[in-house]
Design brief:
Blueprint (H helix, E strand, L loop, with lengths): L2 H12 L5 H8 L3 H9 L6 H11 L3 H6 L12 E8 L8 E2 L8 E3 L8 E6 L13 E5 L13 E6 L4 E8 L6 E4 L6 E4 L1 E11 L1 H7 L5
Parallel strand pairs: 1-4
Antiparallel strand pairs: 1-2, 1-3, 4-5, 5-10, 6-7, 6-10, 7-8, 8-9
Length: about 210
């Protein structure tokens, strides 16, 4: 799989489609053609990249040749609310699920334009973030660092799950235990990237600052 096809896969997952077939069906693409583009067997053109970028809400320049940011720029001082978290006991991040396309929130104190926010749904994260809260993190996609150990962070596992968990040292190098706020601890997970949580905004304030929220 080349870098372009990897970015296509990343964009598809970030949009909330678990499989290539699900994305192809949703947008009326030929399943085989899309699968070949995503697995690298059939490199796609810039014209096709523009179609995929429009569907997945990313910049075509980033998708085609990694130029610039993945996402279109938000309004000055605002960042995107990219999905829900805590909608099930595993604390799985559901990208773009239940979100309006224009959902934006102010950059938190200490945050940058690379920040993104998640909306907490349900009570599986009670004690950390209540139903309706916003969780911010910097969307930098870098490997875990030692200063993250013992803290609740956002992680992506090698099984394509994005989770909010307490990061603990695993039984051997390169493995991590992921402790849930509610539910069992996952042991010896492989982590692709991890990000510190930069801010948690309580539900009352979150409702007031989300652009377009009721």
């Amino acid at each position: 799989m080349d870098d372009r096809s990897q970015r296509l896969r990343q964009a598809r997952i970030a949009k909330g489609f678990e499989t290539a077939a699900a994305a192809a069906d949703a947008f009326g693409w030929n399943r085989n053609t899309y699968a070949s583009n995503e697995n690298g067997n059939a490199p796609f053109s810039y014209r096709r990249a523009k179609d995929y970028a429009s569907a997945f809400g990313v910049r075509p320049e980033w998708l085609y040749d990694s130029a610039g940011a993945m996402q279109p720029a938000a309004e000055a001082g605002l960042v995107r609310v990219i999905g829900n978290v805590g909608a099930n006991p595993e604390g799985l991040v559901l990208f773009a699920t239940g979100q309006d396309a224009g959902d934006l929130a102010p950059i938190p104190p200490g945050g940058t334009e690379q920040a993104v926010a998640l909306r907490v749904v349900g009570h599986s994260m009670r004690g950390v973030a209540d139903d309706g809260a916003l969780i911010y993190f910097e969307d930098q996609r870098t490997p875990p660092t030692p200063d993250m150990l013992g803290h609740v962070v956002v992680v992506e596992t090698d099984t394509d799950e994005v989770l909010v968990k307490r990061l603990l040292r695993g039984s051997r190098t390169g493995r991590y235990d992921l402790e849930s706020v509610a539910g069992p601890t996952r042991h010896d997970a492989r982590i692709r990237w991890a990000a510190h949580i930069t801010a948690i905004i309580p539900p009352f304030q979150a409702r007031r600052i989300i652009r377009g929220a009721a």
